[in-house]
Design goal:
It is a single chain. This protein is α/β, with parallel strands linked by helices. Helix content is about 35%, strand content about 30%. It is built from eight helices and nine strands. A seven-stranded mixed sheet has the order 3-2-1-4-5-9-8, sandwiched between helices. The two termini are about 30 Å apart.
Length: about 210
């Protein structure tokens, strides 16, 4: 289930967030993601925030589908960037094979640990064969709230790559670093670029048993 306190924080701080992370050019990780996509690819921006990544995707000729659980973030993406942003949560079932790429940049870190494998399965289903997934997460262990009340689940890199591989993704690139977020703390993060390759391991076993 979506964490209501986290959504409330993003509603309250939507404008501050947009100012803090606004940039005129796409980041290096977004450029790398775009370079893996075919021209005009449909891309799910899952947890789009104020729509910065989606606006860069649109400007590069792609077809972004910006989705966020915060009404204020969706409003910013619509009004300030002219994007077709819509409300949605990680619990929503995504359309099968609807996208050639998914940009999930520091959004799934707000999901509960027990729900994470199901979210990856949802992303696997929504991607076309050989579809590209970008995942940005904070590194660490356990779960906690920041000073604003946002809920975070932390993972180490090896755990994330194992979960992605089990969900049917091939790891293409891993980048680790540190950055200051909206709360002002400098936190370690990991960016993982992967490709849909096969049925998730659990479903392969189910298929072979039929």
């Amino acid at each position: 289930m979506a964490d209501e306190e986290t959504i409330r924080v993003y509603d309250t701080k939507a404008t501050d967030y947009a100012k803090r992370f606004s940039r005129d050019e796409p980041s290096g990780s977004l450029k790398g993601f775009m370079s893996c996509l075919p021209p005009g690819a449909a891309v799910l921006d899952w947890g789009c925030g104020p729509g910065m990544a989606s606006s860069h995707l649109r400007d590069a000729g792609f077809l972004p589908d910006p989705v966020d659980a915060s009404p204020e973030m969706v409003a910013l993406a619509r009004e300030h960037r002219g994007l077709p942003a819509r409300l949605g949560t990680f619990d929503d079932r995504l359309e099968t094979a609807a996208y050639q790429g998914v940009w999930a940049n520091f959004s799934l870190l707000h999901a509960a640990r027990q729900d994470f494998p199901g979210h990856l399965a949802n992303l696997h289903d929504c991607l076309q064969p050989q579809g590209i997934l970008h995942l940005g997460m904070k590194r660490g262990s356990g779960a906690s709230r920041d000073k604003f009340g946002r809920y975070y689940t932390f993972y180490e890199t090896e755990e994330l790559t194992t979960l992605l591989q089990a969900a049917g993704f091939e790891i293409l690139k891993v980048h680790e670093g540190e950055e200051a977020g909206l709360a002002g703390t400098v936190d370690p993060f990991v960016l993982i670029l992967s490709r849909k390759t096969q049925l998730p391991v659990s479903r392969e076993k189910e298929t072979s048993a039929i």
